[in-house]
Specification:
Layout: H1 20-28, E1 34-39, E2 42-47, E3 65-69, E4 76-79, E5 85-86, E6 92-95, E7 101-104, E8 110-115
Antiparallel strand pairs: 1-2, 2-8, 3-6, 3-8, 4-5, 4-7
Length: about 120
């Protein structure tokens, strides 16, 4: 099946990925694109690069958080209305409560620590 030429626009196309039903199904999908374990007061989340793109949604958190990548990777972090930034080890990103943000999927595995 040919790849859609305009994946950012909702339309009926031969690829089958952009029908209204498919978009609604993806919006309602509450699956998480990571596994999580708690190590003391810190959460460790592991993201799989094979997770479907639609699971990486814009969202906000109910508390302040500080995240840091554990491993080298090609993933990115983005606040609403800002350019994406790299998620590199030893770089701590503060996410204030209620601020919209997202993770942009890369091609390598990603592990991050989350402190609240």
């Amino acid at each position: 099946m040919p790849k859609c030429k305009n994946p950012d626009v909702l339309h009926e196309c031969s690829c089958g990925d952009h029908t209204m039903e498919k978009v609604i199904e993806q919006m309602e999908d509450q699956s998480l694109p990571f596994t999580e374990e708690k190590v003391g007061l810190v959460k460790v989340r592991k993201f799989d690069p094979s997770a479907p793109e639609h699971l990486f949604k814009w969202h906000h958190d109910e508390e302040d958080r500080w995240i840091e990548a554990v491993n080298e990777n090609d993933w990115q972090f983005q606040f609403d209305d800002e350019l994406p930034q790299s998620l590199e080890p030893k770089k701590v990103i503060q996410i204030p409560k209620g601020v919209i943000h997202r993770i942009i999927k890369g091609t390598t595995p990603l592990s991050v620590t989350i402190k609240t």
